[in-house]
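Appendix B.2, paired examples.
Example (i):
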Amino acid sequence: MHAFRTHTCADLTAANVGDTVRLSGWVHRIRDHGGVLFVDLRDHYGITQLLCDPDSPVFAAVDKVRSEWCIRIDGEVKARDASLVNPKLPTGEIEVFIRDIEVLGAAEELPLIVFGDQEYPEETRLRYRFLDLRREAMQRNMTLRADVVTSIRKRMWDQGFREYQTPIITASSPEGARDFLVPSRLHPGKFYALPQAPQQFKQLIMVSGFDKYFQIAPCFRDEDPRADRSPTDFYQLDMEMSFVSQQDVFDTIQPVMQGVFEEYGGGRAVDTHWPQISYRDAALWYGTDKPDLRNPIKMQVVSEHFRGSGFAIFAKLLEQDGTEIRAIPAPGGGSRKFCDRMNAFAQKEGLPGMGYIFWRDQGDGLEAAGPLAKNIGPERTEAIRQQLGLGVGDAAFFLGGKPSSFETVAGKARVVIGDELGLTETDRFAFAWVVDFPMYEADEETGVVDFSHNPFSMPQGGMDALDGNPLDVLGYQYDLACNGYELVSGAIRNHKPEIMFKAFELAGYGADEVRKRFGGMVNAFRFGAPPHGGCAAGIDRMVMLLADTANIREVIMFPMNQRAEDLMMDAPSDPSSDQLMELGLRVIPTED
């Protein structure tokens, strides 16, 4: 007999009745029913019910075990009484009578209980992550993650891609976030960087003639944490292709992503039509570049209905350059109570409020209600209603000014309205490509121009596009949004040195600096670089959606906390004086 088990805790069925078996696992739960002990034994695969009565030679030993002790038992498989069969368990038809027991690992008093669905502070869960991971939901999430990665790899290989590994220690690169720097012992005073992404290397792979590359790549960014983003490291499906257009990349990644979501989406519908929405339209309609298309609400510009109207706040706003009024339709939101609640929401978000109109049936016809309706009159309110396609029992909310001042709040309000009015479908994955990103953006205070997205993207129109206003230049850049999250980001790359130098020049990077920071890529592009492009899909965020959780730490095996600390391993930690001396470094204490 095997030293630890003949079966897993999910294997035994009625066909095994009468067999002598050996099982190993953790004590999930113990119940004492009038002197008969019932023990649920758990391993990675499932649960088997054990029993032990005073006739057993090891009754006293079994009576000593506690939750989460790791044990090995020998016993005889018995059939449960028909009334005691548990159809929810694969092993629910049987139980194992314990004949022998060995304690493989006793457990001290538990800081968190594995059995059940108790909620614990995140600090406790992360400090004792090895216990947290024993819980059923976490076992399920981590198994899902492993299965998703395996499925992605298979689907990429099936499309003719091969997986190549790129360096983890490299040079610093402006990818939109802070680098993690690594001091060099052999070159005192100089630093490597952990890659924010394999961007330059995957482009160099294309220059090297490999045509189709992918990698499940670790990426490292020193970022502020969010619920949907890890503050230190994450994994992505990284891919690149040669001799392709933007549409070729879309046609390649869609079946991979769609197939994974169909396979692991738990029966939820997966959209097969992925619309392409310009960045400008996404901002206008949804207030974000990662729209949730499960919500049918589209915002519209209604400025003309307020220009010169009796609502002085909006009328005066529209006299200023670059301002507009946008409406958020709210089908079914036509009550003063709901409108007041949304107005309070806007105030909590830092705005003075949101104007609103709601329409009700007064018996002799439709009436527009609310302070805003009284100020602009029936003709304008009717024109607004007609434009938005609204009717009795509906409402509309209004925000005005320069779009940059209210767009984010408008997007959040659209989400809240869709959720509260039951307009957003919850059992569906809705995808959309967001395209035509601006290459550059200007700082509102200083006016300084910098890249708004990936600096290695090809500008639409090539060199000619760079001769005009940089803020008018669009890039071959694209994101894939799903249910309000960015899942994929990518671009057709700038593979021509002269265009690359010009693009960086507009963002304030001189030719010497470009050569210094991207010398390997610039040099490679001098020797016959093919047109190429690709994208990267966030593994953690994909699994977060598939697991139906809003916190990315629920699908990462050993995540950091909100302060970028590993409580279990006590990282970051203080280096020893010997380590600092060897690296030629000195730590300057910070003032509290």
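Example (ii):
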Amino acid sequence: MMMPHLTLDAAHKSRAVRWALGVGAAVMSAIGLVLIFLLIVATNNRALYERNYAWLFGINVVVALLLLAILIWVGLRLAARLRDGRFGSRLLVKLAVIFALVGLAPGLLIYVVSYQFVSRSIESWFDVKVEGALVAGVSLARATLDTQASETAARTRSAGAELAQVSGASAGLVLERIRDQLGATDVVLWSASGQLLASAGRSSFQLHPERPSTQQLRMVREQRAIAQVEGLDDLPGLAANTEARVKALALVSSPSVGLWVESRFLQVTVPLPPVLVANALAVQEAHREYQERALARDGLRRMYIGTLTLSLCLAVFAAVLLAILLGNQLARPLLVLAEGVREVAEGNLRPKAALQGNDELDGLTRSFALMTQQLADARGTVENSMGALDTARARLQTILDNLTAGVIVLDVQGQIRSSNPSATRILRAPMAAYEGRPLAQVPGLENFAISVQQQFEAFLGHRGEHGPDHWEHAFELHATSGGVGNHATSLVARGAELPDSARLLVFDDISEIVSAQRMQAWGEVARRLAHEIKNPLTPIQLSAERLEKRLTGKLPAPEQAILTKSVRTIVEQVDAMQRLVNEFRDYARLPAAELQPLDLNTLINDVLSLYEPDNAKVAVRTQLDARCPTIAGDAQQLRQVIHNLLQNAQDATEQAGLDPGGVLPAVCISTHWGETSRRVRLCVSDSGGGFPAHILQRAFEPYVTTKVRGTGLGLAVVKKIADEHGARIELANRHEGGTVRGAQVSLSFATEHAVAL
């Protein structure tokens, strides 16, 4: 999808710009190749370089000026865009500067290095030592040639002595021998008048051999022998060095003395060694070229530096121009994206512009336009969903506000996120005021919060793949006022984990239900015991005793023994059943507690008089806190509580068996005054086997016991009396080193002063 201003003309314009960029890149590459060719030619062919340098340099200057003009024009356009504050002009300038720096920095570095290299390398070509070495080489070559000529002259003079006694007619054989001895190519005997007397070698085949000049003959008469090197100046190059030779001319002595005796001259031509000639010519040519370049080194340096400078200008101009053009091409999709992003940030999700190019940035604009359309569709969907969600939230809040069950949402740290009014009513605490704070900071709910946290940790830690999706546990809470008539609040709570790792806690107040069920159950038990069991017990016992009385003395001894034993068994079982019925009757008919000021330590000492070592199988050890104040309690009922707890502790210890020392461990009863809680705590602990987990949760219910023989009413009576006193009761196993070492029952009583308040 495209905006209206992005028409087909814009696409054609974009293609034209890309085509122009391609042509410009090709032109720049051609110019670069020409410059490289120019430098290569300058190294290998100085003449060609000097011949073509002027017009090549001029062409490059024209191209550089053209690039500079285009660069100035584009720069003025950028400055105008920036001055007008057009969107994206700063980005375009930044991209152009970045690309220009990327192209300029390496170019400057290469230019500086090349400039130093050219300047110093040209100077090193014309070093004084190099020039001295070339001069010495030329002198050495000349000295070598002169030595060669002198030796040839001396040998020719010696050969001329052999011709002193030979006439001109017979001199041919001697000349052949001399040619072979000297390694000459031509040997000629001349007369003083320049007439050829005899020859050997090339001159024998020439009609008019070259004669010595009059000046040469005069010099021979004066010096006896002369020699000169010929052919070096006429050689076109080192390839023709076989023509170089030494020509020696010596005076032949005459044996006769007279004025009319004519002098003769011996001419010997000896070729120079090719290697010597080549070396001499190379040194001479190098010295000549060195002198020529030494004279033109300033111009050579200027040409090299000018070429480098022009190359730098071309490279810099081309880099900046391409940076601007490429930056424009790169910035165009980015500007389209930036404009679209700004509109999206302002909340405008209308269809956005998209470019139709084939590169990734143009594709990105199309993807952005598609994403914007999808966002617009998603916004409509979200708005509809949010409306439905608000409706559902309002409906859910209405349901939560009218639920009778309490609902609390906690986070991982146990902080309250939200709660409903029923939670405030059941927990008797302003839960809404504590939102955002830990549940443990709510007054009176410290233990409840700890227990809930433990339940969540245990549930989350042991939850398997197919395990339960929630936990359920019963709790008992007390009123915060601590009044005499207040009882524990029984709760059944369920916990589950929410998708966002939050924790959902749902609980119901079942205090009234539990109380009603218990009263109904035990009332029914008492009624049935009274009508179904207790009434027949007395006739059964009387009938058995009357039967024994009538038959005594009338039966043989074996039958008499059986009768006596059977009657005794019937009477004992009837008594046991009567005691059981009486215990249930006492539990059901337990009178209301009459709370009076009571010293708990004194009451314990009075009860312990019945548990002296002579009367008890298991010893009782006391740890009474003398700081304990008086409490509000019913002495008769609390005496029954102490009796029940001590009896249960002794039975559990006796059932567990002897300790390693062979003695039954003592039962411990203790009191403690809590200055922080302002309550008196009564604890009875034993060294028995403790309670199993399923018994520990229901230990205070009637007929729940771990004894082989027992009704399980002892702790039920203790719990009922504790409730009558507003005491907090706790039952737990004692652990030592991870092993159960017994059980402990604790009751926490309010002081007399607190109850009065």
